[in-house]
What we know:
The chain is α/β, with parallel strands linked by helices. It contains 16 helices and 14 strands.
Amino acid sequence: MNISVIGLxxxxxxxxxxxxxxxxAVIGYDLNEDFRRELKSxxxxxxxxxxxxxxxxxxxxxxIVDSYEDAVxxxxxxxxxxxxxxxxxxxxxxxxxxxxxEGLAPAVSGKDSFHLVDVVSTVMPGSSDGVFRPLxxxxxxxxxGMDFGLAYNPEFIALGSVIRNFLHPDMVLIGAxxxxxxxxxTELYRSTCKTDPTMAVMSLVNAEITKISLxxxxxxxxxxxxxxxxxxxxxxxxxxxxxxxxxxxxxxVGSKYLKGGLGFGGPCFPRDNIAFQxxxxxxxxxxxxxxxxxxxxxxxxxxLHERIAAHAAPPARVALLGGSYKADxxxxxxxxxxxxxxxxxxxxxxxxxxDPKAIDAARQVLGESVAYHFDPYDCIAGASAIALLTDWPxxxxxxxxxIAASAAPRAVVLDSWRVARGVEMSAFTYIPVGVGxxxxxx
Length: 442
Ligand SMILES: NC(=O)c1ccc[n+]([C@@H]2O[C@H](COP(=O)([O-])OP(=O)(O)OC[C@H]3O[C@@H](n4cnc5c(N)ncnc54)[C@H](O)[C@@H]3O)[C@@H](O)[C@H]2O)c1
């Protein structure tokens, strides 16, 4: 199938590369001229695991063009993957998607054959039928579902594993204006995914509701585990890992995203929750669970701050290990580590931050309030408190004997993911998050 992808950012470029590497002819367009220039020279402007290698396989089938017109005329399906930033009321803005639809419309209008317009960007429920369909019909003079198709086909990917998630989904969500549109996208994904996913083909509005509901459900599991961790921490002998492992073994629950630790962050989960609440409110309903999920999430960095304050007073040095919102990415959007860094620096602590990838991004938002380190041991030297935050694999290999020699005596170690459990930690005041310490030190 010939595909065009409009918006070649963090998700769009990976999507284009996955389809091209699977043998589809892909035409890419991005508003950003620098991006287009880089891509035309076969250079990858996005940092994402496996993308450079995948593009090597994709280049022969991937062509970058300079206009919407070219993109539409040379393809059967156009995927729109542009930003939908959150507005002050929590709803997603359709502004960028609308600009693209306006740009595509003349070419869709001028085409003799059926063209499928597929919105992948996350949008508010009601956008497709309420805004996109009438806009396209008005601008093209054509009928949706007959002369052109409209789809809402969002992705469920996490940064750092975009390609793996894209190629190995459990489910592909396809909201379609008509049967032909649903069948075309089903065929496209069947010929690209390496798994045999459930094809959830449904109406546009149901797909829109499904997208944010699924993300809200996942964050509910994360907050459930974090609420459990906060309780276990207060109960001598309690261990959140034992409890969640058993709960997760029950197939009604499942083990994914059920681990007490840091709260969720990143460009999707937090804002999807807020958008879901705004959506419910619009229809006179209240997303009670969603509010609790957000409250539990916000409490996590506050609790870490309190734990540190109980053991070390400002201006003590506090070493924070990990700044990105999750491992394998430099993205710090809504990162709980960054929130903690900000609150500690604001309280007068001398904050030192280490991250394998996110130092530049962290510096942009935290400025000179924090000291930055490319070596975790430099970061920790002289620290009275050490917080293990992002779950980077390298932190599992730290040499705690070496750290004991350079950190302040009996430094407190807050271990969000229990990576140092089982290691000799008697030189420290060791606090594994979610574990109730007994008189013997557990
Ligand atoms: N990144 C994720 O983890 C993720 C996951 C699921 C869903 N999404 C959704 O996908 C959408 C895109 O996210 P992203 O992270 O890829 O954003 P991004 O900012 O990384 O990329 C967006 C790209 O769109 C381009 N663009 C903007 N306006 C354009 C226009 N009019 N014509 C052509 N190109 C244009 C920008 O130049 C940019 O390169 C958002 O709605 C987001 O919510 C993202």
